[in-house]
Write a structure and sequence with these properties.
This is Nitronate monooxygenase. This protein is α/β, with parallel strands linked by helices and 417 residues long. It contains 15 helices and 13 strands. The strands form three sheets. Strands 10-8-7-6-5-4-3-11 form an eight-stranded parallel β-sheet. α2 packs across α4 and α4 packs parallel to α5. The two termini are 31 Å apart. The relative contact order is 0.15.
């Protein structure tokens, strides 16, 4: 009998939507780190790629030359100098247009046997949480996305928000959870529209970016949560593929989960430094250079979720004036955001010295500028996956190289370029 160390991820398949896919999913990384190009490579190679709808109007401006950000900033320019952003709103028609344009252009270029999904964050409240979320979901379905992965929130109402869409029961729909309890709550609400998710991503404490844990994240481990979710679904008589995510660094890591009953595995960290990733080249080098002590989990995010990131990134040390008129993706329904409030309170109480003490970051501005370097726990291992150039920099890999290494490697080996 072949041992786990001798098996390849390619020995397994994820059977979904009438396809037999390579069971490798590249997670959705915003803002535009998971580019169209990265998602399309995953699909071409027979797996699943994600694009992210984080700050979609801004991303569409960058990629397709539209002017959604400029138009919104001009509409709300009267709010620039004050802390009151209650009148700042997104035009949902523009949000829909931006989403449809970006998704449609992506899907038009798709080749190969794989699929392209959209990662949709509930925590992007956009000053009108319910309406903007519904707009984003339906616009993606309009544009022909293969599937939608619901992230960063419980998404208790999300299925109901798109239940009347013609593709609601055709597109693949999944949810990211970090506990069986969260999944139980979601399934209870989803039952009201008689629609179970097509897959469940179980994200563990070693994942990148926002985490579904508190600062006690070290008390948890992915394998235990993965098994807890599998057993809960089995008890309920539900045959829903479970996809572990967070800390799966080698093909053998993936094989271990497939042997334990996973439908597929989701990975991201190793793809942040590929040519197809949206990170600027100099930032990719910072990821390669990172040591374990350079990575921290903090509470700097205005969302209230803990966030894993490189602690020396510009977002940690710089406090920028909120640009809610142009962005405002984390404004709640009353125009409030914890960074916005902390910024103006500090400015009133002492100016620059006080601003340096603000314990939040402006995710909108820093993410748009690629200055908030969120990352997975094993980012410090990226240097093990490539070679040094004569000038001391690290060789940038192709997404195809990394994908095939996950797919065909054995014994926890990593193929160098």
């Amino acid at each position: 009998m072949q041992s786990t160390m001798d098996k390849k991820l390619d020995d397994f398949r994820w059977k979904v939507a009438g396809k037999e896919l390579v069971p490798l999913v590249i997670g959705g990384m915003g803002v535009n780190i998971s580019t169209t190009e990265l998602a399309l490579e995953a699909a071409r190679l027979g797996g699943v790629g994600h694009i992210s709808d984080a700050m979609m109007p801004a991303v569409t401006d960058d990629v397709h030359g539209t002017h959604f950000v400029e138009e919104k900033a001009r509409e709300h320019r009267g709010s620039r100098k004050g802390a009151d952003k209650s009148g700042v709103r997104f035009q949902v028609a523009q949000v829909a247009e931006a989403t449809r344009m970006y998704v449609r252009e992506t899907m038009a270029r798709k080749k190969g046997p794989g699929l392209v999904f959209l990662n949709c964050m509930e925590k992007l409240t956009m000053a009108n949480p319910k309406e903007t979320l519904q707009t984003r979901l339906k616009a993606a379905l309009d544009a022909g996305i293969d599937g939608i992965t619901l992230s960063a929130g419980l998404h208790l109402a999300s299925f109901a928000l798109m239940a009347d869409h013609p593709r609601f029961r055709q597109a693949l729909l999944g949810i990211i959870v970090s506990s069986a309890r969260a999944l139980k709550l979601f399934l209870k609400r989803a039952a009201r529209v008689n629609r179970a998710p097509d897959y469940v991503v179980v994200e563990g404490p070693l994942a990148g970016g926002h985490l579904g844990f508190g600062l006690d994240w070290k008390k948890f481990d992915l394998k235990s949560i993965f098994e807890e979710v599998r057993q809960y679904l089995k008890k309920e008589g539900l045959s829903i593929p479970v996809i572990p995510a967070g800390g799966i660094f080698t093909g053998t890591d993936a094989v271990e989960y497939m042997e334990a009953g996973a439908g597929a595995v989701q990975v991201a960290t190793r793809f942040t430094v590929t040519r197809e990733s949206g990170l600027p080249e100099d930032v990719k080098q910072r990821y390669f250079e990172a040591e374990e002590e350079d990575i921290e989990v903090n509470m700097l995010s205005p969302t209230g979720y803990p966030m894993r990131m490189l602690k020396h990134c510009p977002a940690v040390s710089r406090r920028v004036r909120p640009a809610c008129e142009a962005y405002g993706y984390l404004l709640d329904g009353t125009g409030r955001c914890s960074y916005l409030e902390a910024y103006y309170q500090a400015a009133q109480n002492g100016g620059a010295d006080q601003l340096r003490q603000v314990q939040k970051v402006c995710l909108c501005t820093h993410m748009r500028r690629y200055q908030c370097w969120t990352c997975g726990h094993y980012t410090y291992r990226l240097k093990e996956t490539t070679r040094r150039n004569p000038d001391g920099t690290y060789q940038i890999l192709s997404a195809e190289h990394v994908f095939k290494d996950y797919r065909f490697s054995t014994g926890h080996e990593i193929a160098l370029p």
